[in-house]
């Protein structure tokens, strides 16, 4: 079976886009199966940088099929903007498929997201305010509008009417803010629908057909394990399942078809938005990582919280996703450090925890236990093979692999395709 899956093991922004783009060179199909334009995947190809939000990171290769699966929430305006932006940069978009079953992010979802964040006050999640949570909430509540509905004028008319009646009542009485005009949204979205129509398909059938034909299919995760709605640091999570199981549900491809599950691991840790982060460094180390690594969000521009690599987190991700390999990224960002810490476990009330605790109260009080490793103090961004890496850099990634219990598959030392060392080929 020629499938592979790339997913985030920490709190996002591990470099999934880069790894997917790299593996896409040999793939035939790339599928996104969850999340929406809360994702920001930066891909650097031939010196040009592309910021992708909804389009799968295989899109830079015009001959590859790219699928936006049923589990994704689609803002049609953002999708079309992104397509137009790509075309302007010279990318040909000819083999894009958008699932009929994907849910549509409507303007009222974005407003609810903004208003809910305001109401949460100090407890705010720090969402991307793209309407992701409210759109998934409507999906779960069985009142959502799907791409297939948008394709049928009468069905869309009816569903929008029902939704807006309720949402406008909420805006007036609960949120105390302005609502939306039915005609305005209906006219705008029926026009957007016509532009999307050529891409719309029952993608679960095409995805399974591609696999049956022996095509190489790559599943691209957005967000990450610790932002998973079930397994992450709830409620400081996103509203989808970025874990391996989520890729099955969100694409309509069964678990037996999945192989080569690759967990992307940043060589240190970052997090955007609120929530627990035991290995966070609110000090010179954190500043060093933020400045050296330009750790600012692709979508929101927010500065990312930074800390040491946390093996408790990635071990948890390895278990939840049954990882086959690790793809360690951004190792080059650590080049200037004399020593580097790895979090091995957490101390809680005098006991060392090796497992990630569920309780936010416990997480608030844990003290990370660190192992100090020597730095390599060498620019590694030009290293072409694993053997060329300084011994201490090799020791660092091997120690991560050992603590997590998953073999190394890829080591990345820069954003470009050429700065990628493959220790285990998947296709
Ligand atoms: P994603 O959301 O997981 O796709 O990650 P982002 O794109 O949000 O953030 C990762 C950033 O790191 C992007 O700007 C990438 O171009 C960049 N990147 C990926 N791998 C490496 C690497 O090994 N070294 C460096 N310096 N940058 C990298
Ligand atoms: P990629 O795919 C990092 C975070 C937000 C917030 C929480 C909920 O680029 O790794 P949401 O808008 O999803 O309801 O926000 O999740 N978040 C991300 N953090 N990378 C992402 O995507 C993220 N997508 C959502 O910052 O804390
Ligand atoms: Mg990102």
TrEMBL record:
The active site is at 13 (proton acceptor), 41 (proton donor), 139. Its EC number is 6.3.4.4. It catalyses: IMP + L-aspartate + GTP = N(6)-(1,2-dicarboxyethyl)-AMP + GDP + phosphate + 2 H(+). One of its GO terms (molecular function) is magnesium ion binding. CDD domains: AdSS. The keyword Nucleotide-binding applies. Mg(2+) binds at residues 13, 40. It comes from the Bacteria. Its main location: cytoplasm. Substrate binds at residues 298-304. IMP binds at residues 13-16, 38-41, 128, 142, 223, 238, 302. SUPFAM superfamilies: P-loop containing nucleoside triphosphate hydrolases. Binds 1 Mg(2+) ion per subunit. Pfam families: Adenylsucc_synt (PF00709). GO terms for cellular component: cytoplasm. Homodimer. HAMAP family: Adenylosucc_synth. This is Adenylosuccinate synthetase. It comes from Megasphaera micronuciformis F0359.
């Amino acid at each position: 079976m020629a499938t592979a899956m790339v997913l985030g093991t920490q709190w996002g922004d591990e470099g999934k886009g880069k790894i997917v783009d790299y593996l896409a060179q040999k793939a035939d199909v790339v599928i996104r199966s969850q999340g929406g334009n809360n994702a920001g995947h930066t891909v650097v190809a031939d010196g040009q940088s592309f910021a992708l939000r909804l389009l799968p990171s295989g899109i830079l290769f015009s001959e590859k099929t790219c699928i936006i699966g049923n589990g994704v929430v689609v803002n049609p305006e953002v999708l079309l903007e992104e397509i137009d932006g790509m075309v302007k940069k010279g990318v040909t978009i000819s083999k894009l498929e958008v699932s009929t079953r994907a849910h549509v992010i409507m303007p009222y979802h974005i407003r609810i997201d903004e208003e809910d964040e305001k109401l949460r006050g100090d407890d705010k999640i720090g969402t991307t305010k793209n309407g992701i949570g409210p759109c998934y909430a409507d999906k779960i509540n069985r009142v959502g509008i799907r791409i297939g509905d948008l394709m049928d004028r009468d069905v869309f008319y009816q569903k929008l009417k029902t939704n807006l009646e309720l949402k406008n009542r909420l805006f007036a009485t609960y949120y105390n803010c302005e609502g939306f005009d039915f005609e305005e949204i209906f006219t705008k979205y029926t026009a957007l629908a016509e532009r999307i129509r050529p891409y719309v398909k029952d993608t679960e059938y095409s995805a399974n057909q591609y696999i049956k034909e022996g095509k190489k299919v790559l599943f691209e995760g957005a967000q990450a394990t610790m932002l998973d709605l079930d397994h992450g640091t709830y409620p400081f999570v996103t509203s989808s399942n970025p874990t391996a199981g989520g890729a099955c549900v969100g694409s309509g491809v069964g678990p037996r078809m999945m192989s080569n599950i690759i967990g992307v691991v940043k060589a240190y840790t970052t997090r955007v938005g609120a929530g627990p982060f035991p290995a966070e460094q609110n000090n010179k180390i954190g500043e060093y990582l933020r400045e050296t690594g330009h750790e600012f969000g692709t979508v929101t521009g927010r500065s990312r919280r930074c800390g040491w690599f946390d093996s408790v987190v990635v071990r948890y991700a390895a278990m939840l996703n049954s990882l086959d390999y690790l793809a360690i990224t951004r190792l080059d960002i650590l080049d200037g450090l004399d020593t580097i810490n790895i979090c091995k476990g957490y101390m809680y009330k005098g006991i060392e925890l090796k497992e990630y605790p569920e309780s936010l109260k416990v997480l608030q009080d844990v003290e990370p236990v660190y192992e100090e490793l020597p730095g390599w103090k060498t620019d590694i961004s030009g290293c072409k093979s694993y053997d060329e890496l300084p011994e201490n850099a090799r020791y660092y990634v091997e120690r991560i692999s050992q603590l997590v219990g998953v073999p190394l598959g890829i080591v990345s030392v820069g954003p470009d395709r050429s700065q990628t060392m493959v220790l285990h080929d998947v296709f």
